[in-house]
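FAQ: What does a ligand-bound record look like?

Like this one, built around magnesium ion:
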Amino acid sequence: MSQKIQAIRGMNDILPQQTPYWHQLEAILRQLMAAYGYNEIRMPIVEKTSLFKRAVGEVTDIVEKEMYTFDDRNGDSLSLRPEGTASCVRAGIEHGLLYNQEQRLWYMGPMFRHERPQKGRYRQFHQLGVETFGLATADIDAELILMTARLWKAVGIEDTVRLELNSLGSNEARAEYRDALIAYLTPIKDQLDEDNQRRLSTNPLRILDSKNPEVQKLVADAPKLNDYLDQESKEHFARLCQILDANHIEYEVNSKLVRGLDYYNRTVFEWITDKLGAQGTICAGGRYDGLTEQLGGHATTASGFAMGIERIVALMEELSPLEMTDADVYLVALGDAAEINAIQLAEILRDEMPYIRVRSNCGGGNFKKQFKRADKSGATLALVLGEQEVTDKTVGVKFLREHKEQLMISQAQLCEKIAEFL
Ligand code: ATP
Ligand code: MG
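The answer part, i.e. the structure of the complex:
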């Protein structure tokens, strides 16, 4: 036997036992997006490396150490997308969707980050991304949050998630705060871990977000971002809170909430669960009014979020497990003529009742073996055909999940009867 080739670490196969959760979530998401009047956009999964450097930021974890970057055959540096916002803005500028317009967009698909794989953290993972453009006021931030809150209910995980909110203020306010934070942390720099010492000169706000308990203790007494907010940002945030209150959305204001990507301003938010260990953020977003201009477009206000699909699927598997079956109806047939007749009936069922799942027995076998397979498929009904049924144009109906006598029905009445029994 030759050596087995295995998948790349952190890049998962999504197996048949899991895909029903994905289907359910994806279907709910599509419906949800339509319900709020959002349109889908699809971008390539590979972009020029410079796009992510400029959008996400040179000194973010993502660009510094997590990107899958390679030279293509022309020598251009390309990267697998680590997130979707940069591509979405790039596409919006390129196709003239943003300037002087309002857009409400969404996309769903794989993202790639070279992280240390662990539960809830993978190298290929999937996100739903929602991005809005040309809407500057807090009502759109609130809409994004209401939309996510509705989703948690639809997938049955609303009791295990909580919302954290913060405002990062204007760029100027943040710059002023940044200086204050540096001034506070520099004298105690030695007590920071290596990563955060580096961040002090590159991306100091990220230190607030550190998971290291020692660092958390140090920043507990640091200056607060809230104290540096500009008046307009304060009003924007107050309005957001007011809309959320009016819609009974609970939240906690976390003054240490910053985001790992450079482009955010004003509103930032995260939905967090305690059920997934350290990987508890299932959805994160906020406002990024400066990004379009940063990527060469006209200034356009923007607000959006990204949601980790694997983490939501993990919650669904735990909290609202699906009953898995392969079919609703299983056709059992013995003998050449019966096999052909069974296939014909299966096709008729699929013509007339495309919403039910019909599995034909393939590969022969005696009745016992076929019923075993029928049972294993999880089907509610087995349809049974032998020589006699073919001659009489009838079919046997066996109830696989309840104690009920087997019936004989005429083939002409098949669909009508199946609809009644399912
Ligand atoms: P984290 O703090 O978990 O590293 P992040 O700030 O890097 O998250 P974002 O870039 O905001 O995450 O991505 C939005 C969401 O995508 C996250 O909240 C999470 O649910 C999901 N996500 C991010 N990275 C991964 C990953 N490597 N594997 C699985 N899901 C991920
Ligand atoms: Mg990360």
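Follow-up question: can I read anything off the structure? Yes, for example: The pocket of magnesium ion (ligand 2) is lined by residues 260 (CB under 6 Å).
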